[in-house]
């Protein structure tokens, strides 16, 4: 007599009761994934605090290394964008680590769900990390390196940084999914994503530069905002097209 | 459509130059249990991962629940449950949070989570992060995860690993009998000849990726299984 026959079954939920073979809606799956991501980050604090501390310490280093009380114009834009970009790399590198190390990938692949849900959830997660990073980093940048407050230029800075964040999140998610299955994932992530992110840094810095010119702060040139938007769209579509293949064996 | 839950012909899977599985053939009717024996590195886990649609076969044909892999993998996902060496659970989440997460991925009602937590006697520890639980407790939660959506096919890699006898008594019915009261269709990897044989309807013995033994369980001598490991 085998083990099964010795035991009385403990549960008799029917298939319909448990919902077997029913495909959950992508929106709900994205919600579940996003909730899981944020819970794990809140409990481990492995990404956002590291990213924020990196940005803060970089601004302090710039403050002393440049030996100036304030920077403005293209120099300020460059310092801000490059610092945010390198801080973002820390988040990109850790984006899929818990899934790869703890079997989350396999669990997701076994579920009857659209794989795009994982792309959307991870992109939104990285976007959330970047927004929190900027909530810490931009005031610190203003305090340590900007001579005068941003004032009316602040809404434009928010718009520009959101466009930058969208691109970084789409490219970062794509590259992180590619790199996480390799042994050199910590090296491969930045190595692959930095060249792809150069146009975002250029577009972002050009758009932010007039906002950081102390004498007369003006709105960013629309062409740079459009460039950023177009780049975000292109890489969003590329990520959408490629993501399924990155998850396959 | 074939009535076989599994139909494998000439399955080969390589890692680089090394063949982890080579020319493996087997079939398994529904509501039967296939137990796979073999020493470490024989290809047991690779076989499970191919059947689970997580690895592509490099040669041969594989049909799972009537769907050919890898072309129709999408039709199989959600109909199988897998219990691997890794529990496929997040260490920072609690048992309840992990199971709720998987319930949402599979479109399963949340009340089922509480039922299963009670069934594996984890109700009182369900709010603690998994990293604080013993390996046996994590294994119990992993069993609950694998049957959460009442799968048609269960793929189990040493399901009783780390479990004490009382825990084995708890999880055996969950992985043995489906929600509809029928015996589950199962593939079990085991290193326990007597325990494995007691569960088996069909026995597959793997050695260096090849099928060294494939027979009905009642025609297998336990010494033949022991011989696979020598």
Attribute tags:
heterodimer; A: 249 residues; mainly alpha; disordered N terminus; B: 230 residues; alpha/beta; four-stranded antiparallel β-sheet; 8 helices
Provide a descriptive summary of the structure in words.
Chain A is an all-alpha fold and 249 residues long. Chain A is built from 11 helices and no strands. Chain A has helices spanning 3-6, 15-18, 26-44, 48-65, 73-94, 97-102, 104-109, 116-145, 154-179, 185-208, 222-247. In chain A, helix 9 runs antiparallel to helix 10 (185-208). The longest helix of chain A has 30 residues, at 116-145. Chain A is elongated. Chain A starts with a helix and ends with a helix. Chain B is of the alpha/beta class and 230 residues long. Chain B contains 8 helices and 10 strands. Chain B has helices at 44-51, 73-76, 95-105, 111-119, 135-147, 165-176, 193-199, 222-228, and strands at residues 4-15, 18-29, 33-37, 59-64, 67-69, 80-83, 153-157, 185-189, 202-207, 210-216. In chain B, the strands form 2 sheets. Chain B has a 6-stranded mixed beta sheet with strand order 6-7-8-3-9-10, with helices on both faces. In chain B, strand 1 and strand 2 (18-29) form a beta hairpin. Chain B is globular and about 45 Å long. The N and C termini of chain B lie far apart (40 Å). The model of chain B has no long low-confidence stretch (mean pLDDT 93). At the A-B interface, helix 1, helix 2, helix 3 and helix 7 of A face strand 6, helix 3, helix 4, helix 6 and helix 7 of B.
Query: How many distinct helices of chain B?
Result: 8
The percent of residues in helical segments of chain A reads: over 70%
Oligomer: heterodimer
Quickly count the helices of chain A. Answer: 11
* Spatial extent as radius of gyration of chain A: 22 Å
How would a crystallographer describe the biggest sheet of chain A? none
Shape of chain A: elongated
Question: Secondary-structure element sequence of chain A?
Answer: HHHHHHHHHHH
Q: Give the C-alpha Rg of chain B.
A: 17 Å
Mean pLDDT of chain A: 87
Proportion of residues in β-strands of chain B: 25-35%
For the terminal residues of chain A, how far apart are their CA atoms? 40 Å
Shape of chain B: globular
Q: Are there runs of chain B of 5+ residues with pLDDT below 50, and where?
A: none
Helix content of chain B: 25-40%
**How far apart are the termini of chain B?**
40 Å
């Amino acid at each position: 007599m085998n083990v099964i026959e010795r035991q009385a079954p403990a549960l008799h939920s029917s298939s319909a009761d448990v919902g077997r073979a029913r495909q959950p809606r992508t929106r709900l799956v994205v919600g579940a994934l996003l909730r899981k991501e944020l819970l794990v980050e809140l409990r481990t604090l492995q990404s956002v605090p590291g990213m924020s501390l990196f940005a803060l310490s970089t601004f302090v280093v710039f403050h002393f290394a440049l030996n100036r009380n304030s920077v403005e114009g293209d120099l300020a834009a460059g310092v801000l964008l490059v610092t945010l970009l390198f801080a973002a790399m820390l988040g990109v590198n850790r984006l899929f680590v818990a899934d790869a190390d703890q079997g989350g990938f396999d669990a997701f692949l076994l579920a009857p769900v659209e794989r795009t849900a994982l792309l959307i959830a991870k992109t939104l997660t990285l976007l959330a990390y970047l927004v929190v990073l900027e909530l810490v980093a931009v005031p610190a940048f203003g305090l340590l390196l900007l001579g005068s407050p941003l004032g009316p230029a602040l809404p434009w800075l928010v718009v520009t940084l959101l466009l930058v964040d969208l691109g970084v999140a789409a490219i970062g998610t794509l590259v992180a999914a590619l790199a996480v299955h390799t042994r050199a994932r910590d090296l491969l992530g930045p190595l692959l994503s930095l060249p792809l992110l150069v146009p975002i840094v250029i577009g972002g810095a050009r758009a932010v530069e007039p906002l950081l010119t102390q004498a007369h702060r003006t709105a960013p040139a629309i062409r740079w905002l459009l460039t950023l938007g177009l780049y975000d769209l292109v890489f969003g579509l590329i990520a959408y097209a490629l993501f399924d293949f990155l998850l396959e064996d | 459509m074939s009535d076989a839950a599994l139909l494998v012909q000439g399955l080969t899977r390589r890692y680089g130059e090394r063949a982890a599985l080579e020319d493996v053939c087997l079939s398994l009717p529904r509501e039967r249990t296939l137990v796979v024996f073999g020493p470490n590195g024989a290809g047991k886990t690779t076989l499970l991962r191919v059947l689970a649609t997580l690895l592509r076969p490099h040669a041969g044909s594989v049909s799972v629940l009537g769907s050919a892999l890898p072309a129709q993998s999408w039709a199989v996902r959600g109909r199988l449950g897998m219990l691997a060496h890794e529990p496929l659970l997040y260490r920072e989440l609690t048992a309840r949070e992990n199971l709720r997460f998987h319930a949402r991925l599979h479109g399963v009602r949340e009340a089922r989570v509480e039922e299963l937590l009670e069934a594996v006697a984890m109700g009182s520890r369900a709010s603690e992060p998994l990293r604080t639980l013993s390996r046996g407790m994590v294994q119990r939660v992993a069993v609950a995860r694998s049957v959460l959506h009442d799968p048609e096919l269960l793929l189990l890699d040493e399901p009783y690993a780390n479990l004490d006898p009382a825990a084995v008594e708890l999880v055996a019915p969950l992985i043995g009998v489906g929600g509809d009261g029928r015996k589950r269709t199962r593939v079990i990897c085991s290193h326990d000849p007597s325990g494995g044989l007691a569960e088996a309807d069909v026995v597959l013995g793997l050695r260096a990726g090849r099928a060294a033994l494939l027979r009905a369980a009642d025609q297998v001598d336990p010494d033949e299984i022991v011989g696979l490991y020598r």
